[in-house]
Amino acid sequence: MLRTMVDDLKNQLGSTVIVLATVVEGKVSLIAGVSKDVTDRVKAGELIGMVAQQVGGKGGGRPDMAQAGGTDAAALPAALASVQGWVSAKLQ
């Protein structure tokens, strides 16, 4: 479901970096999508790894799409808040 949402958002938004998350029964699921025009600077696998580490997990994937899981749902808001700064630094 998250993968479909990322694909739909990438098609609607054009040039974009997306991170979506959900928590089910205390487990965090993460997905990142990066439009192909920015994958030379922002890699979805690196991004999802950075977020996953903050929620006690790990993940990986392709430059344009990556998934991860974690166990620390309480850390999710701060992890998501860190995405904008990380992406901005990569785009400069």
From TrEMBL:
UniProt keywords, alphabetically: Aminoacyl-tRNA synthetase, ATP-binding, Ligase, Nucleotide-binding, Protein biosynthesis, RNA-binding, tRNA-binding
UniProt-listed Enzyme Commission number(s): 6.1.1.7
Superkingdom, natural source: Bacteria
Top-level enzyme category: ligase
Residues covered by the DHHA1 domain: 2-88
Family according to the record: Belongs to the class-II aminoacyl-tRNA synthetase family.
Molecular function GO terms recorded: alanine-tRNA ligase activity; ATP binding; tRNA binding
Protein name in UniProt: Alanine--tRNA ligase
Pfam families in UniProt: DHHA1
InterPro entries: DHHA1_dom (IPR003156)
BP-aspect Gene Ontology terms: translation
Stretches that traverse the bilayer: none
Organism name: Salmonella enterica subsp. arizonae
The keyword Ligase belongs to this UniProt entry's keyword annotation: yes
